[in-house]
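hi! just following up on the protien thing from before. the input was this:
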Amino acid sequence: MELSTKLRGMTHDHRSTRLDGAGANTIAAFFDLDGTLIPGSANIPLAKAAFRAGMMTPKELAKDLRNGVSFILKGATDERSEQVRDRILAAVEGYPAAQVEALADSFMAALVDSVEPTMQQVLDEHADRHEDRIVLSASPTEIVSRFAAEVGLEHGTGTTSERDADGVYTGRLVGPFCYREGKVAVMRQLAADYGYDLTKSYAYSDSVSDLPMLAAVGHPVAVNPEPALRDLAADRGWPIIETSATPRSRLTSFAGITRLARTVAAGTASGAASVTAAALNAAADSVRSTARTGRQLAIKGAPARTSKRLSLSDAHHG
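and the predicted 3d structure came back as:
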Protein backbone atom coordinates (compact mmCIF):
# COMPACT_ATOMS: atom_id res chain seq x y z
CA MET A 1 0.00 0.00 0.00
CA GLU A 2 1.29 3.45 -0.85
CA LEU A 3 2.37 5.75 1.97
CA SER A 4 -0.27 8.36 1.08
CA THR A 5 -3.02 5.76 1.27
CA LYS A 6 -1.87 4.67 4.72
CA LEU A 7 -1.77 8.24 5.93
CA ARG A 8 -5.22 8.98 4.59
CA GLY A 9 -6.44 5.98 6.52
CA MET A 10 -5.64 7.87 9.71
CA THR A 11 -8.41 10.46 9.24
CA HIS A 12 -10.36 9.99 12.48
CA ASP A 13 -13.49 11.45 13.99
CA HIS A 14 -11.39 13.94 15.97
CA ARG A 15 -10.30 15.73 12.81
CA SER A 16 -11.37 19.37 12.69
CA THR A 17 -10.99 22.19 10.18
CA ARG A 18 -8.49 24.95 10.67
CA LEU A 19 -10.08 28.38 10.13
CA ASP A 20 -7.59 31.24 10.40
CA GLY A 21 -6.90 30.70 14.09
CA ALA A 22 -10.49 29.87 15.03
CA GLY A 23 -11.39 26.24 15.63
CA ALA A 24 -7.93 25.08 14.63
CA ASN A 25 -7.14 21.40 14.49
CA THR A 26 -6.04 20.02 17.85
CA ILE A 27 -3.69 17.53 16.18
CA ALA A 28 -0.06 18.46 15.52
CA ALA A 29 2.88 16.60 14.00
CA PHE A 30 6.25 17.25 15.66
CA PHE A 31 9.41 16.55 13.68
CA ASP A 32 13.02 16.31 14.72
CA LEU A 33 15.28 17.99 12.14
CA ASP A 34 18.72 16.35 11.97
CA GLY A 35 18.58 12.81 10.62
CA THR A 36 14.78 12.91 10.43
CA LEU A 37 13.65 15.57 7.99
CA ILE A 38 17.15 16.02 6.56
CA PRO A 39 20.15 13.69 6.34
CA GLY A 40 22.97 14.70 8.66
CA SER A 41 23.13 17.79 10.84
CA ALA A 42 22.13 21.40 10.12
CA ASN A 43 24.96 22.48 12.39
CA ILE A 44 27.57 21.40 9.84
CA PRO A 45 26.71 24.09 7.23
CA LEU A 46 26.16 26.55 10.08
CA ALA A 47 29.65 25.87 11.42
CA LYS A 48 31.16 26.31 7.96
CA ALA A 49 29.33 29.61 7.48
CA ALA A 50 30.45 30.84 10.92
CA PHE A 51 34.04 29.92 10.08
CA ARG A 52 33.91 31.85 6.81
CA ALA A 53 32.54 34.83 8.74
CA GLY A 54 35.48 34.73 11.15
CA MET A 55 33.40 33.59 14.10
CA MET A 56 35.24 30.26 14.57
CA THR A 57 38.83 29.11 14.51
CA PRO A 58 39.99 26.25 12.24
CA LYS A 59 40.37 24.07 15.34
CA GLU A 60 36.81 24.80 16.45
CA LEU A 61 35.51 24.10 12.95
CA ALA A 62 37.35 20.79 12.78
CA LYS A 63 35.85 19.76 16.13
CA ASP A 64 32.33 20.67 15.03
CA LEU A 65 32.75 18.79 11.75
CA ARG A 66 34.01 15.79 13.66
CA ASN A 67 30.96 15.94 15.92
CA GLY A 68 28.78 16.21 12.83
CA VAL A 69 30.27 13.11 11.26
CA SER A 70 29.99 11.26 14.57
CA PHE A 71 26.29 12.15 14.56
CA ILE A 72 25.91 10.77 11.04
CA LEU A 73 27.63 7.53 11.99
CA LYS A 74 26.51 6.96 15.56
CA GLY A 75 23.59 9.28 16.26
CA ALA A 76 23.13 11.93 18.92
CA THR A 77 24.66 11.73 22.40
CA ASP A 78 24.07 13.96 25.40
CA GLU A 79 27.74 14.92 25.58
CA ARG A 80 28.09 15.90 21.92
CA SER A 81 24.78 17.76 21.90
CA GLU A 82 25.79 19.78 24.96
CA GLN A 83 29.19 20.50 23.41
CA VAL A 84 27.55 21.86 20.26
CA ARG A 85 25.14 23.95 22.36
CA ASP A 86 27.97 25.47 24.41
CA ARG A 87 30.11 26.09 21.33
CA ILE A 88 27.29 27.90 19.52
CA LEU A 89 26.52 30.04 22.58
CA ALA A 90 30.19 30.98 22.92
CA ALA A 91 30.64 31.61 19.20
CA VAL A 92 27.74 34.05 18.90
CA GLU A 93 28.37 35.93 22.15
CA GLY A 94 28.92 39.62 21.43
CA TYR A 95 27.63 39.44 17.85
CA PRO A 96 24.47 41.20 16.64
CA ALA A 97 21.66 38.72 16.08
CA ALA A 98 21.07 40.07 12.58
CA GLN A 99 24.65 39.18 11.60
CA VAL A 100 24.27 35.63 12.87
CA GLU A 101 20.88 35.19 11.23
CA ALA A 102 22.40 36.24 7.91
CA LEU A 103 24.77 33.24 8.04
CA ALA A 104 21.89 31.07 6.87
CA ASP A 105 21.72 32.93 3.56
CA SER A 106 24.62 30.84 2.26
CA PHE A 107 23.15 27.40 2.99
CA MET A 108 19.42 27.58 3.69
CA ALA A 109 18.32 26.84 0.12
CA ALA A 110 20.45 23.69 0.06
CA LEU A 111 19.16 22.68 3.51
CA VAL A 112 15.55 23.04 2.35
CA ASP A 113 16.30 21.06 -0.80
CA SER A 114 17.76 18.25 1.31
CA VAL A 115 14.43 17.32 2.92
CA GLU A 116 14.04 13.58 2.50
CA PRO A 117 11.46 12.84 -0.25
CA THR A 118 9.68 10.30 1.94
CA MET A 119 9.41 12.83 4.76
CA GLN A 120 8.18 15.52 2.36
CA GLN A 121 5.33 13.17 1.55
CA VAL A 122 4.58 12.79 5.25
CA LEU A 123 4.61 16.58 5.67
CA ASP A 124 2.24 16.95 2.74
CA GLU A 125 -0.17 14.36 4.11
CA HIS A 126 -0.37 16.13 7.47
CA ALA A 127 -0.96 19.42 5.63
CA ASP A 128 -3.79 17.81 3.65
CA ARG A 129 -5.38 16.93 6.98
CA HIS A 130 -4.97 20.51 8.25
CA GLU A 131 -2.61 19.41 10.99
CA ASP A 132 0.12 21.81 12.09
CA ARG A 133 3.67 20.64 11.35
CA ILE A 134 6.31 21.68 13.85
CA VAL A 135 10.08 21.26 13.70
CA LEU A 136 11.87 20.87 17.04
CA SER A 137 15.66 20.81 17.10
CA ALA A 138 18.61 21.45 19.37
CA SER A 139 19.98 23.67 16.58
CA PRO A 140 19.62 27.46 16.97
CA THR A 141 16.06 28.75 16.75
CA GLU A 142 17.13 31.24 14.09
CA ILE A 143 18.04 28.36 11.78
CA VAL A 144 15.14 26.08 12.71
CA SER A 145 12.43 28.74 12.40
CA ARG A 146 13.74 29.95 9.04
CA PHE A 147 13.96 26.37 7.78
CA ALA A 148 10.37 25.72 8.86
CA ALA A 149 9.14 28.89 7.17
CA GLU A 150 10.92 28.15 3.90
CA VAL A 151 9.65 24.56 3.83
CA GLY A 152 6.15 25.91 4.45
CA LEU A 153 5.59 24.52 7.94
CA GLU A 154 3.58 26.14 10.69
CA HIS A 155 6.24 26.36 13.42
CA GLY A 156 9.94 25.81 14.00
CA THR A 157 11.63 26.03 17.39
CA GLY A 158 15.18 25.33 18.48
CA THR A 159 17.58 26.37 21.19
CA THR A 160 17.25 30.10 21.73
CA SER A 161 20.14 32.40 22.62
CA GLU A 162 19.48 35.44 24.78
CA ARG A 163 19.75 38.91 23.23
CA ASP A 164 20.33 42.16 25.06
CA ALA A 165 18.43 45.40 24.48
CA ASP A 166 20.63 46.15 21.45
CA GLY A 167 19.96 42.78 19.81
CA VAL A 168 23.40 41.40 20.69
CA TYR A 169 23.81 37.83 21.90
CA THR A 170 24.78 37.47 25.56
CA GLY A 171 26.05 33.87 25.39
CA ARG A 172 23.20 32.62 27.60
CA LEU A 173 20.09 30.56 26.85
CA VAL A 174 16.49 31.72 26.88
CA GLY A 175 14.19 28.87 27.79
CA PRO A 176 15.08 25.18 27.70
CA PHE A 177 17.82 23.50 25.70
CA CYS A 178 15.62 21.98 22.96
CA TYR A 179 16.92 18.46 23.48
CA ARG A 180 15.50 15.41 25.29
CA GLU A 181 13.10 16.66 28.01
CA GLY A 182 13.65 20.20 26.76
CA LYS A 183 11.77 19.31 23.58
CA VAL A 184 8.85 18.07 25.63
CA ALA A 185 8.77 21.35 27.54
CA VAL A 186 8.54 23.19 24.21
CA MET A 187 5.84 20.81 22.98
CA ARG A 188 3.74 21.37 26.09
CA GLN A 189 4.07 25.13 25.76
CA LEU A 190 3.01 24.98 22.12
CA ALA A 191 0.11 22.73 23.09
CA ALA A 192 -0.99 25.28 25.67
CA ASP A 193 -0.61 28.16 23.20
CA TYR A 194 -2.36 26.54 20.22
CA GLY A 195 -4.67 23.99 21.80
CA TYR A 196 -2.94 20.84 20.59
CA ASP A 197 -3.96 17.54 22.13
CA LEU A 198 -0.68 15.65 22.50
CA THR A 199 -2.48 12.35 23.01
CA LYS A 200 -3.79 12.63 19.44
CA SER A 201 -0.64 14.14 17.95
CA TYR A 202 2.39 12.67 16.16
CA ALA A 203 6.13 12.79 16.71
CA TYR A 204 8.86 11.72 14.30
CA SER A 205 12.52 11.14 15.15
CA ASP A 206 15.57 9.08 14.23
CA SER A 207 17.22 9.13 17.66
CA VAL A 208 16.66 7.43 20.99
CA SER A 209 17.60 10.77 22.57
CA ASP A 210 14.12 11.88 21.47
CA LEU A 211 12.39 9.15 23.45
CA PRO A 212 10.77 11.77 25.75
CA MET A 213 9.38 13.54 22.68
CA LEU A 214 8.10 10.30 21.16
CA ALA A 215 6.57 9.15 24.44
CA ALA A 216 4.76 12.49 24.87
CA VAL A 217 2.37 11.89 21.95
CA GLY A 218 -0.22 9.32 21.01
CA HIS A 219 1.44 8.45 17.70
CA PRO A 220 5.25 8.08 17.87
CA VAL A 221 7.03 7.19 14.62
CA ALA A 222 10.69 6.23 14.20
CA VAL A 223 12.41 7.55 11.06
CA ASN A 224 15.44 5.73 9.64
CA PRO A 225 16.25 5.09 13.30
CA GLU A 226 19.62 4.55 14.88
CA PRO A 227 19.96 0.98 16.20
CA ALA A 228 18.84 1.68 19.77
CA LEU A 229 15.64 3.38 18.62
CA ARG A 230 15.02 0.72 15.98
CA ASP A 231 15.10 -1.96 18.68
CA LEU A 232 12.84 0.05 20.96
CA ALA A 233 10.34 0.83 18.19
CA ALA A 234 10.16 -2.83 17.24
CA ASP A 235 9.58 -3.83 20.87
CA ARG A 236 6.83 -1.23 21.31
CA GLY A 237 5.20 -1.77 17.93
CA TRP A 238 5.85 1.76 16.72
CA PRO A 239 5.76 2.40 12.97
CA ILE A 240 9.12 2.86 11.26
CA ILE A 241 9.74 5.02 8.20
CA GLU A 242 12.75 4.02 6.12
CA THR A 243 14.23 6.99 4.27
CA SER A 244 17.21 5.01 3.02
CA ALA A 245 17.60 1.69 1.22
CA THR A 246 20.28 0.85 3.80
CA PRO A 247 18.97 1.21 7.39
CA ARG A 248 21.32 2.81 9.89
CA SER A 249 23.59 0.26 11.53
CA ARG A 250 26.09 0.18 14.31
CA LEU A 251 29.58 1.17 13.19
CA THR A 252 30.70 -2.27 14.33
CA SER A 253 28.69 -3.88 11.54
CA PHE A 254 29.48 -4.34 7.88
CA ALA A 255 26.77 -1.84 6.94
CA GLY A 256 28.20 0.64 9.42
CA ILE A 257 31.68 0.32 7.96
CA THR A 258 30.25 0.75 4.44
CA ARG A 259 28.52 3.91 5.64
CA LEU A 260 31.79 5.22 7.00
CA ALA A 261 33.55 4.46 3.70
CA ARG A 262 30.94 6.43 1.79
CA THR A 263 31.32 9.37 4.15
CA VAL A 264 35.10 9.34 3.77
CA ALA A 265 34.82 9.03 -0.02
CA ALA A 266 32.43 11.97 -0.16
CA GLY A 267 34.77 14.05 1.97
CA THR A 268 37.75 13.21 -0.20
CA ALA A 269 35.91 13.89 -3.44
CA SER A 270 34.87 17.33 -2.26
CA GLY A 271 38.30 18.16 -0.91
CA ALA A 272 36.96 18.33 2.63
CA ALA A 273 40.05 16.96 4.33
CA SER A 274 38.88 17.98 7.77
CA VAL A 275 35.60 16.08 7.28
CA THR A 276 37.52 12.99 6.18
CA ALA A 277 39.85 13.22 9.16
CA ALA A 278 36.87 13.70 11.44
CA ALA A 279 35.21 10.59 10.04
CA LEU A 280 38.33 8.51 10.58
CA ASN A 281 38.74 9.82 14.12
CA ALA A 282 35.10 9.02 14.85
CA ALA A 283 35.59 5.51 13.51
CA ALA A 284 38.73 5.04 15.59
CA ASP A 285 36.90 6.19 18.70
CA SER A 286 34.11 3.73 18.05
CA VAL A 287 36.49 0.84 17.42
CA ARG A 288 38.42 1.65 20.61
CA SER A 289 35.16 1.76 22.52
CA THR A 290 34.19 -1.61 21.07
CA ALA A 291 37.52 -3.10 22.10
CA ARG A 292 37.15 -1.77 25.62
CA THR A 293 33.81 -3.53 26.06
CA GLY A 294 35.21 -6.78 24.72
CA ARG A 295 33.12 -6.88 21.57
CA GLN A 296 34.60 -7.94 18.25
CA LEU A 297 33.97 -6.39 14.87
CA ALA A 298 30.92 -8.12 13.43
CA ILE A 299 30.90 -8.67 9.68
CA LYS A 300 27.35 -9.98 9.60
CA GLY A 301 25.71 -6.56 9.95
CA ALA A 302 22.99 -5.46 12.34
CA PRO A 303 20.94 -8.19 14.01
CA ALA A 304 17.98 -9.20 11.89
CA ARG A 305 14.79 -7.85 13.36
CA THR A 306 11.33 -7.53 11.94
CA SER A 307 9.86 -4.12 12.58
CA LYS A 308 6.76 -2.38 11.34
CA ARG A 309 7.21 -0.04 8.42
CA LEU A 310 5.12 3.10 8.32
CA SER A 311 1.46 2.34 8.62
CA LEU A 312 -0.18 5.22 10.39
CA SER A 313 -3.48 3.40 10.24
CA ASP A 314 -1.85 1.02 12.73
CA ALA A 315 -0.33 3.85 14.74
CA HIS A 316 -3.60 4.92 16.32
CA HIS A 317 -3.36 3.43 19.75
CA GLY A 318 -6.69 4.70 20.99
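The radius of gyration is 20 Å.
The longest strand covers residues 132-140.
cheers
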